[in-house]
């Protein structure tokens, strides 16, 4: 995707030295576009933990490069395993992180130490290329849903929650990919952007992305979505996800479940866009089995923004002494999900639906 006409991916290797990693500091958006250079695996872990880099697919890709950085100085088995464990522990809910680390280990463990660093960079690069291709395919399949709604030239109002755009992936995004393609095709689309408290990824990131691409959008308070659905102002909900179980349960940013309930009550289609790397085939019951990250209370008690003088500031919004809880994700049961948009097509949010697109995983379970 482009920023001010210049094409970017969300993570890239420095062209000059060929090994350091660049990312956008997403905690500074939308008011500042800062590019960070990461040179150690510890810096990568810090960037993931502090959400300088976020979004399930992008976390996995950046972590893969973090492992490559570690192997530059020492590529023995101890460094490989310890670095992998450190990176895997940074965010517990997003399955792409664990998937990427396991893929890297599978590729690197059989190699001699002298071969590992170069192989790690190559494998991380493949992960990035595959993610970009998967998300472009998700966009094409989701575009068909928007084309159907736009029949006759009518405007399509889409509601999304959190940020599932190109800065949450390597490129294109998941939930936003169909929207970009619809806009570029000339369809009349408008996006309701949930602010997504407490970190405001919708207001800060999704709105910034859509605005940079010229997509009409309106930022709304998180609690406004149901009202808009009741009054016929939402035609479809499309969200991303950090983990989908084999039965179709969906873990996404806190507040997604409430949007799904409102959508069901108002007969609004509720779709979830994801690459297959986000499917956790080992988990069936999302509510009981998916670990939900509890983040710092300060994310709830304080908020960052820009004051009237143009200064980026952080202010407290709760009384002194008030406690705050901050679960970062919730789980939407499969029964509330209209369907899943993947790189191989759309399917019902069921095990049978997923296996119809990815039969190889059913064969693995049967030992075939």
Automatic annotation (TrEMBL):
UniProt-annotated catalytic positions: 242
Known function: Catalyzes the interconversion of methylthioribose-1-phosphate (MTR-1-P) into methylthioribulose-1-phosphate (MTRu-1-P). Also catalyzes the interconversion of 5-deoxyribose 1-phosphate and 5-deoxyribulose 1-phosphate. Part of a bifunctional DHAP-shunt salvage pathway for SAM by-products.
Alphabetized NCBIfam families for the sequence: eIF-2B_rel (TIGR00524), PRK05720.1 (NF004326), salvage_mtnA (TIGR00512)
Organism expressing this protein natively: Acetobacter peroxydans
Gene: mtnA
Superkingdom of this protein's organism: Bacteria
UniProt-listed Gene3D superfamilies: translation initiation factor eif-2b, domain 1, Translation initiation factor eif-2b, domain 2
GO biological process: L-methionine salvage from methylthioadenosine
Record's catalysed reaction(s): 5-(methylsulfanyl)-alpha-D-ribose 1-phosphate = 5-(methylsulfanyl)-D-ribulose 1-phosphate; 5-deoxy-alpha-D-ribose 1-phosphate = 5-deoxy-D-ribulose 1-phosphate
Record key words, sorted: Amino-acid biosynthesis, Isomerase, Methionine biosynthesis
Record carries keyword Transport: no
Binding site for substrate: 54-56, 91, 201, 252-253
EC top class, as a word: isomerase
Residues carrying the site annotation Transition state stabilizer: 162
Protein's name in the database: Methylthioribose-1-phosphate isomerase
EC nos: 5.3.1.23
Keyword Membrane attributed: no
Gene Ontology terms, MF aspect: S-methyl-5-thioribose-1-phosphate isomerase activity
HAMAP family given in the database record: Salvage_MtnA
Family the entry assigns: Belongs to the EIF-2B alpha/beta/delta subunits family. MtnA subfamily.
Pathway(s) it belongs to: Amino-acid biosynthesis; L-methionine biosynthesis via salvage pathway; L-methionine from S-methyl-5-thio-alpha-D-ribose 1-phosphate: step 1/6
Entries under InterPro entries matching the protein: IF-2B-related, IF-M1Pi, IF_2B-like_C, Initiation_fac_2B_a/b/d, M1Pi_N, NagB/RpiA_transferase-like
């Amino acid at each position: 995707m482009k920023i001010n006409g210049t094409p970017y991916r969300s993570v890239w290797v420095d062209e000059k030295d060929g090994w350091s990693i660049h990312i956008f500091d997403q905690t500074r958006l939308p008011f500042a576009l800062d590019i960070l250079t990461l040179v150690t695996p510890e810096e990568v872990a810090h960037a993931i933990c502090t959400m300088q880099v976020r979004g399930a697919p992008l976390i996995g890709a950046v972590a893969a490069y973090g492992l490559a950085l570690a192997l530059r100085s020492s590529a023995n088995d101890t460094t490989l395993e310890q670095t992998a464990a450190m990176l895997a522990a940074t965010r517990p809910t997003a399955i792409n992180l664990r998937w990427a680390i396991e893929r890297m280990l599978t590729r690197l463990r059989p190699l001699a130490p002298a071969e590992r660093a170069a192989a790690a960079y190559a494998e991380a690069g493949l992960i990035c290329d595959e993610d970009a291709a998967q998300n472009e395919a998700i966009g094409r399949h989701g575009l068909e849903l928007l084309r159907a709604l736009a029949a006759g030239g009518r405007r399509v109002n889409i509601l999304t929650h959190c940020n599932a755009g190109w800065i949450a992936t390597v490129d294109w995004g998941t939930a936003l990919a169909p929207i970009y393609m619809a806009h570029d095709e000339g369809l009349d689309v408008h996006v309701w952007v949930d602010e997504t408290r407490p970190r405001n990824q919708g207001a800060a990131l999704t709105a910034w992305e859509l605005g940079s691409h010229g997509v009409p959008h309106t930022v709304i308070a998180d609690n406004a979505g149901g009202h808009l659905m009741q009054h016929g102002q939402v035609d479809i909900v499309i969200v991303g996800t950090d983990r989908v179980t084999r039965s179709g349960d969906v873990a996404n940013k806190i507040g997604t479940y409430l949007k799904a309930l409102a959508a069901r009550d108002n007969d609004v289609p509720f779709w979830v866009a994801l690459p297959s790397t986000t499917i956790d085939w080992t988990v069936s019951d999302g509510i009981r089995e998916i670990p939900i990250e509890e983040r710092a209370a300060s994310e709830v008690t304080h908020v960052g923004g820009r004051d009237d003088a143009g200064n980026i500031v952080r202010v407290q919004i709760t009384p002194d002494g008030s406690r705050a809880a901050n679960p970062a994700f919730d789980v939407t049961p499969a029964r509330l999900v209209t369907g899943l948009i993947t790189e191989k097509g759309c399917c019902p949010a069921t095990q049978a639906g997923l296996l119809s697109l990815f039969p190889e995983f059913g064969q693995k379970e049967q030992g075939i």
